[in-house]
Specification:
With 69 residues, the chain is mostly helical. The protein contains three helices and two strands, in the order H-E-E-H-H. It has one domain. It has a two-stranded antiparallel ribbon.
Amino acid sequence: MALSAKRRKALPRSAFVYPKQRKYPIDTKKRAAAAIAYGARHNTFGNVNKIKAAVHRRYPSMKKNKKGS
């Protein structure tokens, strides 16, 4: 489900990878996975490693083990 402007504005700053710019919401696991996917694209805002780190801090269960990745 798309995040409406009203709901996006209602999210706390802690729900974003880049809180000042309010980029890459990670309030749910689905949005966190999407943030990683969008961040990995060419010519997008931010750094994919920073996005992954923020997602893994918030959702440690989403971190892949080193053997499987």
